[in-house]
Design goal:
Elements lengths: L24 H17 L3 E2 L5 E3 H7 L5 H5 L2 E4 L5 E4 L4 H11 L8 E10 L11 E10 L4 H17 L5 E7 L6 H14 L6 H9 L10 H7 L11 H17 L4 E2 L13 E7 L7 E7 L3 H4 L7 E7 H7 L9 E6 L2 H16 L3 E4 L6 H10 L4 E5 L1 H6 L2 E5 L4 E5 L1 H11 L1
Parallel strand pairs: 1-5, 7-8, 12-13, 12-14
Antiparallel strand pairs: 2-4, 3-4, 5-6, 6-11, 7-9, 9-10, 10-11, 14-15, 15-16
Helix pairs in contact: 1-5, 5-9
The structure holds histidyl-adenosine monophosphate.
């Protein structure tokens, strides 16, 4: 769109959303395929939940004092008077689906993954969108610290498989319901002492949930938070042992990580382990993925008392880091001349497509030369030529565009040649 002809509002994508066009979408498909295969190799199965959920799911799951719930949800009242929200994250939906379908009673591993859009009314900027995509993985009913390490290793394996190496893995433990209250109290006292240096939002958080002060992006608050007490000094023996177990298992993988005591993640449900992978030199929106353990969510939903752990990766942020060139497509272009040849071309195009060959056909009724130049422009690997002579013989010509060579044969034989080189 040129500067002279600004697009009408209804003809541009909604602020913070974007189209993924052909050329780019192939990279997304590649990433999604690699991720799905990798997750499945760790025993995960895909679980697809709806885009819309009851608002209470996120109020209860994500947490009423989080920025996501207080400021960023796309919430509306539907025609039946229900409060509905476009999911800002996926974790509560998976927990809901387990409770709703009693997947815990199947006796199968409860390991799920999903790749799809999420919605947050945040300030759009590079790496931060209002509709964005996550790859989300969740594990339930597995409490061993080795599981925490395994999931962090899987995240690392995904990035390495895609050639992403300039990252750092941060881990922390945010404690549990037994040890967090004392920590929150200590935070409240520390934050109270520097109240004047905090933004109005953080001043409110001193009372509601002081842990959330760590999420604030205002530099003054970040600076103040650096001197706050560290959660590591407040962990109960169980949380301390668990964290030591996670670290030992990570060492088993030889995985490098840094303990970041201020990394509490912006969601209320975490217990014990939290982790993030950040892009080195990635600017402000540098978290490629983040996750952690949430052992109380199911119970809080009124479901079975089973623990959970998972992470979500931001696909836009990942794709921006990749140097993947889409694989060149090898397609066939069918050119023809005359009515009978056109009918045969249509029939043969169907045959090649059924056999899995990407096939385009000329419908415009132009001369051979124009058809060839179109095939060239589209980068077709082969051109199938159907003229009167070919029709009479039932033998057609196939031109290999890169080699400049031409062979002649029955459709089946030509198909075999294409399939061999596809
Ligand atoms: P989160 O940290 O809110 O965690 O989001 C995970 C990732 O999604 C981020 O690291 C980032 O890459 C991407 N992301 C988040 N917001 C945006 C945005 N506005 N634009 C672009 N990318 C974004 C969760 O959502 C948790 N549900 C993760 C989890 C799963 N914890 C346990 N299980």
């Amino acid at each position: 769109m040129s500067a002279e002809t600004p697009a009408k509002k209804e003809l541009t994508a909604v602020k913070g959303t974007h189209d993924i066009l052909p050329g780019e979408v192939e990279v997304w498909q590649k990433v999604e395929t690699v991720a799905a295969r990798l997750f499945e190799s760790y025993g995960y199965r895909e679980l697809r939940a709806p885009v819309i959920e009851h608002t209470e799911l996120f109020e209860k799951g994500t947490g009423e004092t989080t920025d996501i719930v207080t400021k960023e949800m796309y919430t509306f009242v539907d025609k039946g008077g229900r409060s509905i929200t476009l999911r800002p994250e996926y974790t509560p939906s998976v927990a809901r689906a387990i409770v709703e379908h009693r997947l815990d009673l199947l006796g199968l591993p409860m390991r799920y993954y999903y790749i799809g859009p999420m919605f947050r009314y945040d300030k759009p900027q590079k790496g931060r969108y209002r509709q964005f995509h996550q790859m989300d993985v969740e594990v339930f009913n597995e409490k061993d610290p080795a599981v925490d390490a395994e999931i962090i290793e899987m995240a690392d394996a995904l990035l390495r498989t895609l050639g992403v190496t300039q990252t750092e893995t941060l881990i922390n433990s945010v404690g549990c319901r037994a040890c967090r209250p004392a920590y929150s109290q200590a935070l409240r006292e520390a934050a109270g002492l520097v109240r004047d240096r905090l933004c109005p939002d953080c001043r409110r958080k001193i009372e509601t949930n002081p842990l959330r002060i760590f999420d604030c992006k205002v530099e003054g608050c970040r600076e103040a938070a650096r001197s706050f007490p560290k959660i590591s000094e407040f962990l109960c023996p169980e949380c301390r042992d668990h964290f030591a177990g996670v670290r030992a298992a990570l060492d088993l993988y030889g995985l490098r990580y840094k303990v970041d005591p201020n990394m509490v993640r912006g969601l209320d449900y975490y217990t014990k382990t939290t982790f993030e992978v950040i892009a080195l030199g990635g600017g402000q929106q540098n978290a490629v993925l983040g996750g952690g353990r949430y052992d109380d969510m199911m119970k809080d939903f009124g479901g079975p008392d089973i623990c959970g752990i998972g992470f979500a990766l931001g696909v836009e942020r990942l794709v921006a880091m990749l140097a993947l060139a889409p694989e060149p497509r090898k397609s066939l272009y069918v050119v023809h001349m005359g009515d009978k040849a056109r009918a045969e071309a249509i029939r043969l195009a169907r045959m090649f497509r059924r056999a899995g060959v990407e096939t385009l056909i000329e419908y415009a009724g132009r001369g051979f030369k124009a058809q060839f130049s179109r095939a060239n422009k589209l980068g077709a690997a082969w051109v199938l030529i159907i003229g009167d002579d070919e029709l009479a013989k039932g033998f057609f010509k196939l031109k290999d565009m890169a080699a400049g060579t031409q062979i002649e044969g029955a459709p089946d034989a030509l198909l075999a040649v294409i399939k061999e080189k596809q």
